[in-house]
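haha ok so turns out i had the wrong file open the whole time. this is the CORRECT one, sorry everyone. sequence first:
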Amino acid sequence: MVPSSADNKASTAIPASRRGEILLELAVLASNAANAQIDGLTTRLSEALLRASASCADPAQARLHFNAASLLKKNRYPFYYVVSDRLGAMLKQEVEALANPDFQPFDAGDAPPSLEPDVEIDKKLCLVKASRAIENEHTERMVALGMRLGALLQRNPLITAENPFRPHIFLSVIHDAWCEFQPDVTAHHIVYPLLGPELCLDMGPLLHALNTALVKLGVMPQLVRKTRGENGAGGVEDFEEPEDDVLLPQLRRLFSSSSTSTDKPLSNGFPALFDDDAVIASAARNALLGYLTSFDKSRADASLTGLLDEIKRNAPREGLSHADASVLELVAKIFEVIQRDPHVAEELKSTLLRLQLPVLKAALQQPEFFFKRSHPARRAIDTLIGLCAGWDPDKGSSDPLYLLLVRSIDRIAQEADRRPAVFLDVVSDLDAYRRREETTTLQALKTSIAQRLQDEKMIEARRAARQQVALRIGTGEVVAFVEAFLEDKWVPVLTLAYSVKDEKPQALDHALQTMDNLVWSVKPKITAEERKELLAKLPTIVASLNKWLDIIRWNDDARVKFFNDLAKCHASIVRAPLELSPERQVQIALALAKQAAERRLQRQANAEPERVPDAYDAQVQALEQGAWVDIGREDRTRRLRLGWVSPLRNLYIFGTRERQEALSMTAEEFAQALREGRAHIVPGAGLIGQALAEALGIDLGHSANSDSAGDKSAA
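then structure:
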């Protein structure tokens, strides 16, 4: 695959100073995506070390692996922070080196001790082998990311060795973090042989997030597949191919079928090196365009079928090529769909018919009209239809929006022949009007928006709190009553702490540390030193728990029962037998690991399955401010404008045409209303995609708005 010219233009629009900032933002994004997986990696690594200890023939190596597994299980959160810090620093250094070839890596002073020379060589070979296996699993995403990073920096596509997000970086960080975390240098060599596709961070979602971020920034939103010409030379297909567009394969076949070579002889003595079909098709198209230019414009607002039939009957003798006939059919279908759209007022439908000839000629000259949503003529139609849905016929023809729409249509009809740039001029005027409307709406909804921002802050705080609790109890190692306590009572505590994080960051740190101390306190303590440490920390742990529970006002009998159960648990831990043999310790550790795995599986079985986002969720996420929505059923429907979308797209405020708030909904509520038929998104720009799908016999189902959903990224 190679970048298209449109993609290069999108990349060059990004200033050089901004490119370095984007790379640093990508590093943060990758680091955050990886951080969410570190806890799961820690669990898998400790289990792998435990299995290795059971299979080691050498007792010394078995003990080394067992002690390493125990250390990791008891200190999973310190290990989390070591990996997180190292990964963030390494990715930042990698992207800075990519942006600046003269960049000199600085010595952080915390590099792990080096291994013995022969072990160091073995480590490098193991990491290279493991990284290649991971690269093979994610070849397409790696290639796409390399191309996009190259386009961002205006370079050739990056090879894997140049990619700052290559798997080798993540594998190396895991090994180095282990060496820093493990104080026993004799155990530094036991982790790297275990690393590989099964024991690493999952690169799939990470690479997907990076590619998606670059697409949203306009860096190669579409990738064009490389093809080979008949002479074996490399070539590039003419049209863009977004991965999620089901229309393009059939559109490509429809137009490519007209360019297959024929044996039709070339007249007028043209040299043989000319492409016969290309010359013949070009001559026919020029004749057709000339005919359309002289076409009686008073008939341009005739019925669609009549206009198309008349053009076919009276077209020049050279006849219509297959591609030109396809263009006529597709343009006719577009206006047919517009004419039957119930969301466009009848008064505007007849006016929109004046665009038939200008759009037809634009599509004949540039068939990418059907392939690129960013094509000027297509953007003009999309924008006009979107604004037509907002005009209320009760306001009459003196309404400023109606006058703007009619003036824009007249301008295209009168100027498109001699000045194709009129499409872009009209789009610019319409976009300016839309921005003014959105700004005015935001001012009118200012009070409501402030309240919804606070609501979203609490939603995100609750979500983050649940994630932190799930991180601790997901392994199945936490005893049942503490697990229930964390889910029922500590989620509200963390929600409160997250909500005041900006003002009091120390409060969140204290709440998390209190939770970690509680989880640690109920785990088995098999040495006298551990039990001594537990007894020393218990007063502080209990005091911190009581402090937070007072804040959330949990004062019923259940609180007394919880602390009684906690005291019994701590007493049983302290009174358990000491001085266990190594073999018995291994047996106990294996039994605990098995019990934790069973509890984890039981939790997964009892948990409600996570709802998979469907087409309705995608429509809600793709909806932009200014879109129109019909709320209600049948004759009780109200047309409302989406006046505001929260920064994290959790909350939506809908307003009337008079910019007054009508209702607000969460993303989940809005998607459910769409499912149940209580809400309908006015298609707007999606009508062109719907028309093309009908013409090609494709059932888009609930993705009828996919055209509008992709406008932002495609443009």
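The beta strands are 226-228, 234-236, 628-631, 638-645, 651-655, 661-666, 679-681.
again sry for the mixup
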